[in-house]
Amino acid sequence: MSDIAGEQAATLKALLAERQFNADRLNALTAHCERMRRELDLDARLSIAEDLRRDPPTTETVLLHSVLFQLSGDLYHYERILHYLLLGGERVGPQLMHYTYWCMARQLFLAASAPEKLAAFGPCDLFRFYEELVLAVTRRWGIVPPRHTPRNGPIRRVAVLTNQFTNDQHQPSRDCFDYASRLQDDFGLDVAIINCNTMPLRAESLFVPPMVAELVTDYEGVFALTMFGRQVKTASFTDRAFSKNKLSTIVGAIDGYDPDLLVTFGGANVVGDLFAATGARPVVCLPTTSGMTISLAHLVLGYEEGNHTAAMPALYRGPFAWRFRPFTLGFSPPPTAGAGGTLDLGDAAFVFAVVGTRLDLEVTAEFLALADSILDRCPGAVVVFAGEVEQLPARLKAARNGARMRSLGHLKDIRAFYRRCHAYLNPSRQGGGGSAAYAIAEGLPVVTLAWGDVASVAGAGIPVPDDAAYVERAAALFADPVLRERQSELSRVRFRTVGDRHRCTERLLAYGEEARDLLRAAAKAGAQREDPPSASVAE
Question: How close are the terminal C-alpha atoms of the chain, in Å?
Answer without folding.
Answer: 89
